[in-house]
Please model this.
Amino acid sequence: MKPLLRTLTLIALLAIPTLASAQTTTPAKAPAAPAPASVEQRVADLEAYVNNAAPKTADEKVLGGPVSATAGPGHNAFIMVSAALVLFMTLPGLFLFYGGLVRTKNVLSVAAQCIGLAGLVTILWWAFGYSLVFGKNFAGSPIGNIFGGSEYFFFEGVTSAPNTDYAYWISQNVFAMFQLMFAIITPALIIGAIAERMKFSAVMAFATLWMFFVYFPMAHHVWGITGEMNGVWNAAASIKAIDFAGGTVVHMTSGWSALLLCILVGKRAGFGKVPMTPHSMVLCMVGTGMLWVGWYGFNAGSALAADGVAAQAFTTTTLAAAVAAFTWGALEWVLRKHASILGMCSGAVAGLVVITPAAGFVSAGSAVIIGVLAGIVPFLAVVYLKSKLGYDDALDTFGVHAVGGTLGAIVTGVFATADANANLNTNLKGLLDNGLVVEQFKAIGVTLVLSLTATFIIGMLIKNTIGLRPSDEDEARGLDVTDHGEEGYSLKG
Model:
């Protein structure tokens, strides 16, 4: 009995330290469950969604968070519809507008160039363009002064989650598609100046190089978060200019490039000697209507949310387009004793061009003034400057888009107000009363130098390699047949 007691006592003594240690060691705790978001937090997020502001419950410890990783359905739907409207501007809007103004033997060539550019630019945008414009990992490197970054090459990481550098409540893939439509229509605008006498292969080659050396760097600097001309969002921008929907990026680059390219290509055979009247003003009018409707996606959609800024852009777009169309027609009535359909169509498009950089930054009253100016200044360029200088801008791309885009950049600096868009107070508060116009002129200067220099180099390169023009025989026969082996209209009879 005694040996057994001694054994039990020894075991108990040996166990005491172990038990004491076990009592003083804190057991591992399971991770705490996310705390439910309070009613106040949920209401704050709802207000942020409605006002297109930053989400409030972005903390991952809040149940249901981070909200910033979730796109808002209403804003997403608005931008998807806007993207479709901008594509509608090119296909079929721009084709019908331009196609109605050329001769029957070149109608399909315009159609082919529009849809060909849609395919080409989409591939470039997916592979490189979106990242070069809206990426930012090149910041601080030598190439950062030209392009944005490489992080989104081949749409790597471009998902349905928002890219909050640009928008809180729309998916990044939707944002990328919306911006793609701008990239498509910009080189397509150039077609108007060189219509009827530039080979399809030359158009595609020119557009490929032009996107990399003109559009991508310009779009990055004006709209990219690290862009050197992004006055609204980049506090470190060296030029604090503003461009709501593409006055410099879209219309100035395409318009000024179009002027130089049409000079490099040369005049159409028989220009000034044989009639080159539009073959169908009905198609032109239909195309104008499509452009006007699509422009609501272009301008209102550039608010990147279905909010008050979009509503303001929608309003100013309507006023400027209508007033410019009426003003152009009135000038024709006074000076030529008739108001033509072509003139009123040109006026409407000019009004849309001029209001584009200002749409979300100006009041309704300013939009009316802008519309009057848009009906006068491009009219003078198209009717008088063109004939005075003698260049063959076939469909008046320079007179409407270059002159209109430049005018738009200037009047944006004159009329922009924080009353129309409070975002102007972010980095431009001190420039709104005085100084913004100077910044706009700086942006105009950069746009002109880049567009004209790059276009000259690219144009001369193509001219001396594959050639810009078809043969005289092919041009006389028409590009529909010689470039595409098809006829849009019967040439018999």
The CA atoms of residues 135 and 149 lie 4 Å apart. Residues 74-164+171-469 form a domain with the Ammonium transporter fold fold (CATH 1.10.3430.10). The mean pLDDT is 90. The chain has two domains: 40-70, 74-164+171-469.
